[in-house]
Amino acid sequence: MDYAEVVERFDPVLGLEVHVELSTNTKMFCGCPTTFGAEPNTQVCPTCLGLPGALPAVNGKAVESAIRIGLALNCEIAAWCRFARKNYFYPDQPKNFQTSQYDEPIAFNGYLDVVLEDGEVFRVDIERAHMEEDTGKSLHVGGATGRIHGADYSLLDYNRAGVPLIEIVTKPLEGAGERAPEVAKAYVSALRDLLRALDVSDVRMDQGSLRCDANVSLKPKGQAEFGTRTETKNVNSLRSVERAVRFEMCRQGAVLAEGGRIVQETRHFDESSGSTSAGRTKETAEDYRYFPEPDLAPVAPSTEWVEELRATLPELPWERLKRIQGDWQLTDAELRDLVNAGAVDLIAATVDAGSSPAEARRWWVAYLTQQANTRGIELVELSITPVQVARVIELVNGGSLTNTMAKDVVDGVLAGEGSPDEVVEGRGLKVVSDDSALEAAVDEALAAQPDVAEKIRSGKVQAAGAIVGAVMKATKGQADAKKVRDLVIARCGG
Amino acid sequence: MNDLIRSTAAELAAQIHAGEVSAVEVTQAHLDRIAQVDTAVHAFLHVDTEGALAAARKVDADRVAGQQPASALAGVPLALKDVLTTEGVPTTCGSKMLEGWIPPYDATVTRRLREAGVVILGKTNMDEFAMGSSTENSAYGPTHNPWDLDRIPGGSGGGSSAALAAFESPLSIGTDTGGSIRQPGSVTGTVGVKPTYGTVSRYGLVAFSSSLDQAGPCARTVLDAALLHEVIGGHDPLDSTSIDRPLPPVVAAARQGADGDLSGVRIGVVREFAGEGYQAGVLASFTAAVDQLRALGAEIVEVSCPSFTYALSAYYLIAPSEASSNLARFDAMRYGLRVGGDDPSLSAEDVMSLTREAGFGAEVKRRIMIGTYALSSGYYDAYYGSAQKVRTLITRDFDAAFEQVDVLVSPTTPTTAFKIGERVDDPMAMYLSDLCTIPSNLAGNASLSVPSGLAEEDGLPVGLQIMAPAMEDHRMYRVAAAYEVARDAAQGGPLIHRVPEVSV
Ligand SMILES: [Zn+2]
């Protein structure tokens, strides 16, 4: 169904579950390292292989990260909570149960304010954030789909088994209306920025250290009860989050409009087609037989510890933006433009390297944005660093470069000719400051345009521009225009 | 029977450390004894002759080099229940599921034994995954009670208790989830101790029921059990349920108790553990034991623990629930038995099912099914939830009782050893064997069984159970040691010396 029609007839309800792999050095319940991409089954021990007799011991650093995430999401932190076993048979699950948390999450009842592209703020209520362990990875060999059905055989890698995960679950998000796909994307994006600022995860969606499952349902406008939902998995990029939600809304809208029924099921998002397809049906809800994990002591963070952790929270992304807006004296629209252009961090780093916010901003949003657009890449992907931009600005302010020459220098850096100073050297870009040489050029220009010279002598100083232009041309832009102007007026007896 | 195999562990250690006998000689004597009688007893699933002799040689070499013994038990042989992992030595848990599995790591108990210079003779038979009270559920055939080879040696640790009573080893390790150390001790005339939950590491103990399992020492005397208790006990960071406090002073308590004076000690007799279902000879032996304790100066009072009546029911919900989850890992994917793995037409799920069908015995399957059912949504509150409430009530009964008395006593198990095969078709009758022992597993407190004599009607051993509060294990050792001295004086020598010679 056409998207416009869907949002006209239905209200979407979203539920987002984000799994975050923590970047702790060791796994959740054993001392194995967590390095991504190691040889299969080299980062394993009796505990994370689920060998008979092996026992878990909680990674304190992971609990600390979980609490910090909870605090940053404005959650309450449980004074006492337990792990629970989620029982199900699957070969990538060494114990055939996942050690997770069930009805006693470490953090609960929070929110995250998400800023949409036009500046509107949408509050996403957080139901809970809980700790659990990741599974191993299955590689299904043979067959057409790469999925378990039809495969000839499967390989198992348990390096990932036991890596600490935090699952962050939103409450049902209502009221986003036609902006639901955008809200979903903005939420995951904001969450990613937050987790990065907390330095608790690599938050690489492409490597699976940040994974999103999107629950979507539709209800006819005005209806209070929720419709049947589907859960879409394998949503591996921000763009996919938006596309998957949008696709599901359209698909469900079409089914409902024809009087059909939505099947509660897990669906799979396909990046290339942008569509979802049915996976496991959840009609007969799997019974995970949760019960409190008897091998682990309850987690009971003291109030003092929680407050200590609260004090270690870094400046959170939205607080930082607020501060930057004040420091740089930006209007809401200006700030939003910088955010959307991905320029805030680059400008901030340039400012940190010594430039004024105004100069740094001018370079990044004007000339460098133009260069990025020409190349079809993101600003951050340009091969120039904020420190290098700051150096160029410094050279201009010190009078060593004109603005025109500065662009030349930047072009040189982007072309891989080295640092700004190396480009200045290599391209022979030096402001002509030798007075006698400049005087000679000025005299030559005045002699070439006697009528203009006469005008200046008679007091029409604005005519000096023509002479300055000629001098600049003659010196290939390497002269300081203001200095040239002063000289012209001086030679004409001004 | 030579003197080496009849000696206590304390005596052997003294002789070895004094250089009067070598650890190798002691070890060889026990290996010879195993070779002589174990075909009839079947206490061992695996005898590690080479490993045992190597460990003994190390103890002898250290002594010759002038080093202090690694522990009070260095050089003394021990039989290890096959539920504790041993690096490089098979560990089967009495199950076909783990036939041929060689663990790549030592359990903490195993490691502590090795570090203490204790010589591990081999691995003992047990009910499959420690589920049972007779060792008949072993996939490798039953163990026979040395007092009467037609009878069960108790369970699940029947191999560990029979090895002591058959003089195959002076020490053994058991694990006790509902009585699996104490009930075998009771029916074989040996001492079995379930320490306070959390004081002996469970790391490497293949889990049956995590919140109930506890490894502990088994021996022929109270002092030997205490010496072994101190070797294996203590905090272990690898076990999150391990208690980070010093071990109770059990050896000192056993020595103090041997003085035979219990004046000032208050002992409570549990009213609920008597009457119907208890063998007359068991009750008579228990009454005589209580009289003896009174004669030693103890004050005897009757105590009521009404919730103990529900302990068995709660246990048979909690233990199977945890077991259903703990045993899920046996799925043919990583280790152990694998059925259908080479058939390309079978899915991973098929292979899991076929393997579990073939690898688990009937009792294990029964408990997995009970546990799976009890944890199912819709039934959880009624079964698992209610059982946990009963558990709390039992703990409160203990707390109230220990307000009045220092230790509690009861028969260890309602009957003497029954005949092999007698209860295999009647699980409820089998479960009743653990009636008196289960409350201490549910509450986590300390409890032991010490022999109290022979039942008049069948001449088979009876056990006296002594229960102490959590972390007060030394109290029961003191009482047991005092009782042991008085018993032997009254009965004309150690009870264990009346075990008939094994006919092979
Ligand atoms: Zn590991």
TrEMBL record, chain B:
It comes from Solihabitans fulvus. GO terms for biological process: translation. This is Glutamyl-tRNA(Gln) amidotransferase subunit A. Heterotrimer of A, B and C subunits. Residues 25-475 form the Amidase domain. HAMAP family: GatA (MF_00120). Allows the formation of correctly charged Gln-tRNA(Gln) through the transamidation of misacylated Glu-tRNA(Gln) in organisms which lack glutaminyl-tRNA synthetase. The reaction takes place in the presence of glutamine and ATP through an activated gamma-phospho-Glu-tRNA(Gln). Keywords: ATP-binding, Ligase, Nucleotide-binding, Protein biosynthesis, Transferase. One of its GO terms (molecular function) is glutaminyl-tRNA synthase (glutamine-hydrolyzing) activity. NCBIfam families: gatA. It catalyses: L-glutamyl-tRNA(Gln) + L-glutamine + ATP + H2O = L-glutaminyl-tRNA(Gln) + L-glutamate + ADP + phosphate + H(+). Belongs to the amidase family. GatA subfamily. Its EC number is 6.3.5.7.
